[in-house]
From TrEMBL:
It comes from the Bacteria. Residues 146-237 form the Mandelate racemase/muconate lactonizing enzyme C-terminal domain. Its cofactor is Mg(2+). Belongs to the mandelate racemase/muconate lactonizing enzyme family. This is Dipeptide epimerase. Binds 1 Mg(2+) ion per subunit.
Amino acid sequence: MSSWETKKMGRFTLRFRPFTLEMRHVFTVASFSRTTTPVVLTELEYDGIVGYGEASMPPYLGESQESVTKFLSQIDLSHFDSPFQTAEILTYIDQIAEKNTAAKAAVDIALHDLLGKIMNQPFYKIWGLNPDLIPPTSYTIGIDTEEMIRKKVEEAEQFKILKVKLGLDTDKMIIDTIRSVTDVPLCADVNQGWKNKEEALEMAHWLHERNVVFLEQPMPKEMIDENAWLTAQSPIPTIADEGCQRLVDVPKLQGVYTGINIKLMKCTGMREAKQMAELARSLDMKVMLGCMTETSCAISAAAQLAPLVDWADLDGALLIGNDIYDGMTVQEGKCILPDRPGIGILKK
Ligand code: MG
């Protein structure tokens, strides 16, 4: 295990170290397969109180342990007196360099955890959110053989909704296989895998008849007119994932998709994620809250805002075999937030 790199900056200390998550199953989506996910763990300390954060970098997003540690090395918080200068601190972090959204999220999450610990309250309470409103989380079934899909669906018995990865030529086999095992509602994530709008619409109807409740990123994000056409015709909502990164994207997507999938690693963390959820709501768009493969750190951070969303997809920590934190748990498919301050996690 790599050791912590430590940066002392006035009353703040930032620590970070790379860590590799091991997936419990080979994970396949329309564009790639993998068995590990690189992350960088962070700790932000102020007056002896420590907040935890995490950056997760699935390879297709263009960040790496090297880019994240390089970004974190550039941070200097010595000109801030207090972690309660949250807006100023996060604006400063955002302008250090473009993109680097997972690296920025690693700081944002640690800062929110730290603030919650100083105030001695879980962050969802600080935000005034009711945890009873959190929708059941979906559990993701990657693209696989018929036999493996059946096995994974049987393992996922506690979940009230399953998320299915589609987008190759096995879509109907996958859905038929799942339907031979369970009737639970499904959501389908195509990961930009469909390239033709008429075929996409035909599939939307076929999936609707099999109780698939929404379609995530059906076609490439660049196909804006085609996605808008599909959204207007589709019997089920469409959700932008690859097509929606940050707050600035949300208004442009109104009419192109029914809703957006917010992920902390795409949008720089909890602060902007909450702004996106509220903006989407005000534009009458649906809101989904997703994740990468992450430890219970980033998952528990995202879960603080889950009472605000229509659909939660917070299974990232369940897909790995070496989670190093205790945090949000899933019981009978429901997300249970720990009643601990900040994002509510403990080191195992
Ligand atoms: Mg997705």
